[in-house]
Amino acid sequence: MLVLHYTGMRTAEEAIARLRDPAARVSAHYVVEEDGAVWRLVPEERRAWHAGVSFWRGRERLNDRSIGIEVVNPGHDWGYRPFPALQMAAVCDLCLAILGRHPIPARNVVAHSDIAPERKRDPGELFDWEGLAANGVGLWPAGVDGSDPARPAGGMERAAALLARIGYRVEPARPEVALAAFQRHWRQERVDGAPDAGTLARLEAVLALCEGEAARAPARIGEGAG
Fold first, then answer.
1. Most CB contacts within 10 A, which of 6, 17, 93, 148?
2. Rounded distance between C-alpha atoms, residue 185 and residue 81, angstroms
3. Domains (range + CATH), the chain
4. Active-site residue among 33, 70, 125, 176?
């Protein structure tokens, strides 16, 4: 897996110092600054402590099976702002290099908020997932209108089922939490956890992309293609 985060601290220096502090018990493989500078903190073949309590597509303990990239941004608590073009270009180049070294399917290129929706919002609704996907990093439902605010009957039940099939852990008592995480990634026009028609359209489109990729993937001996 490839997991993208924002640092959520006031400066890059603060974030890097914390990621390098053994007492903090948090780390990531890479940090990308706003000017495009890239720092490697942990070799890719070693575990970094970036995912925490997490779940995706039936798997837990995602630190054991993922590479983590921290993208410098103060985050929602310190003045969330758009990610500069130079920074996104560096993120894209880094992701492509990682994907060239590791067989990570596009459906496993995710946000921290996707794998830990109860705890995390990063890298958030200003992150250019669409631009990354256009360059071969992750998935994006191109051309699918997400703006329809109509609220169809049974929308939340339908949304919860689609979320689970995509890979989210959906808490039965609070499905809107996972739905808001999906919106931060794939329906950024409005992040409110509401199962409107635009969100449902994007859910169905993303699921179709995930299932299409899984169907095309060669299976390892003893495993299914998913």
1. 6
2. 16
3. 1-140 (3.40.80.10), 144-226 (1.10.101)
4. 70
